[in-house]
Amino acid sequence: MHAALDAQARSWEHDGTGRTLPQRRADALVHLVTTRDGSARVAASVDVVVPLDVLTGQSSQPGSIAGIGPAPASAVRRLALAKGATWRRIVTDPATGQVVDVGRRRYRPTAALADTVRYRERRCTFPACRMPARRCDVDHLQAWADGGCTDACNLQPLCRHHHRVKHEAGWAVAWNRRTGGTTWTSPSGRRYTNHPDDLI
After folding, report:
1. Domain tally for the chain?
2. Do 108 and 174 share a domain, yes or no?
3. DSSP class of 56
4. Are 109 and 150 in contact (CB under 8 A)?
5. Do residues 155 and 138 make contact, with C-beta atoms less than 8 angstroms apart?
6. Adjacent-strand bridge partners of 158
7. Of 9, 35, 84, 134, which is most buried, counting CB atoms within 10 Å of its CB?
8. Is position 46 within any domain?
9. What is the signed CA dihedral for 38, 41, 46, 52, rounded to 10 degrees?
10. Measured between alpha carbons, how far is 177 from 143 in angstroms, rounded to an integer?
11. Quick check: is 104 in a domain?
């Protein structure tokens, strides 16, 4: 793919636009995956990062295309708005730029997201377990295989033992967004609720 983009970009070197090679590569990518009416020409997965103000036309700052780098606002808008484009929400911390929610894009949380979850809970969320969160796995409350997202609201620290218990022994867990507590239900139906203060 990179070779094809590079070849197309180099063929436009003397087109009179004055665009740099990386800009022409971005143009080549747009040309390759879209048609004149903006519909997708090929089924491809291209990660395009577009700030909201660029997407809405309020800014002309560049976005970026994974594997290529910065791309003109017009190119990233065209790719992001192409017919058949799939959108993925990725939430970043506005202060640090760290990714804190990757939705369904990836199974494993980023280091920053895992740290957020471990700091929030401080220990394994299984009832009465005292294992510090820093020594725990980060587990999906709603399993990834069942459509669960990789975000702070769907992740919890579980020690390795209780991680296995959850998946192999039939325990169920739910996180209460309002209180921040977790409710575990045993295979026999008995419920145990942890409150955030219990986890510190």
Report:
1. 2
2. yes
3. T
4. yes
5. yes
6. 137
7. 9
8. yes
9. 10
10. 17
11. yes
